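Thread: Newbie trying to understand structure tokens

Hi all, I'm a second-year student working on a class project, and my supervisor (Dr. K.) asked me to get a predicted structure for one chain before our next meeting. I've only ever worked with sequences, so writing a 3D structure as a token string is new to me. If someone could post the tokens and maybe explain what I'm looking at, I'd be very grateful. Here's the chain:
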Amino acid sequence: MEPFLRKFFPSVYKKMKKAGSGNEYCKFDSQLLTLFTSSLYIAALVASFFASIVTRRFGRKMSMFIGGLVFLFGSILNGAAVNIEMLIIGRLLLGVGVGFGNQAVPVYLSEMAPAKFRGALNIGFQMAVTIGILVANLINYGTARIKGGWGWRLSLGLAAVPAILMTIGSLFLPDTPNSILERGHTEKAKQMLRKIRGTDNVDEEFQDLFDASEAAKKVDHPWKNIVQPRYRPQLVISVLIPFFQQLTGINVINFYAPVLFKTLGFGDNASLMSAVITGTINVLATFVSIFTVDKFGRRILFLEGGIQMIISQAAIGAMIAIYFGVDGDGNLSKVQADILLFLICTYVAAFAWSWGPLGWLVPSEICPLEIRSAGQAINVSVNMLFTFVIAQVFLTMLCHMKFGLFFFFAGFVITMTIFISFFLPETKNVNIEEMIRVWKAHWFWGKYIPDDAVIGKHERSN
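---
Reply by user tm_fold:
Sure, no problem. This is what the structure looks like when written as tokens:
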């Protein structure tokens, strides 16, 4: 929004308004502007490690409560900002809230859900993310039209609404049986499991939880434990899935869609509306994942989504190269702009039913209880680290790599699709405490899993 840029980023505003000021790809290149976006994620990275301790010792709902409360303070500070320092501090507080929320929510959902519905229920987390993106785009579109130049305050301040919902809502949530057991309340955990399953016949599942809890209690240092060879599959997946998720290039669209569309010649309102369109596609495509992930599995969605993203990114890069040129001085006709928007929506849809939700689901469901908090902290921290990197360098990359940026991300999508095809086993319909069997049966990871890791469950089953 121009009033926002004038107040906090005047040099960017002047460059944007100056006609013929040079390469169009570079007119938004400002490290201070990208710091406004990326500071949130470096704070989330640091906070995720503290959130891991809170989640393990005090439960998942406590982490959600802290995350919502800190996020609330950050949104108030952003809405009331009078200088860049106040703005950045507010963003850092938002980041702390994101770090705690991302640490606790996927684990909470995976632990509460029955195995046959775990994928769909966990993807509710990603659905909330995509709805948030869409609502944010709609708010930006609406508040940008407010006369008087104060619409940006409303846009930033309205983040307090989901923060209040999360803070208050967490107080009414029951804690997970896993978390209750982890803190030593055996009978209370069994009662909670009966309540959430709606039946008294939970003895077998509870025994799995109890055995996992007892094993977890013997682990004083989950961070030291997770680097042992027997947890190598979970460690590698918890690092590479969020790493690849960010290198799909999706946050180029999520963070900078209006900037990207304006760079490509869309007008102010047209770029905001285009961001709303991609946000709508994001939400609708996430429903595809919800209804298919437990039926067809995780792998097929990963692989199909990867192939679709590769094709879309290559087509986007080629189209920008041909019609917009090396210096960004070309013009897109309305038809060409519509085709470009369609290709971007195709790419967003592929991400939204594959790497978007599954990037959170799979790492949250694969770790045994004794390393679950550490595994999720690694997942969140790697995700936030590379979200920060992409957010911080994107505008500079756009300036220097131009249309080649889309081919750059397509190369990573090729790599990660190959990785999934060889190294990720199918985890659908597997109880979360029996996941060790999946790794033991895998052609590559099985050699890291000792026989005694699965023998207890095997004996009980027989």
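A couple of things are worth pointing out once you decode it. Confidence is low (pLDDT under 50) at residues 457-462. The radius of gyration is 23 Å. Feel free to ask follow-ups in this thread.
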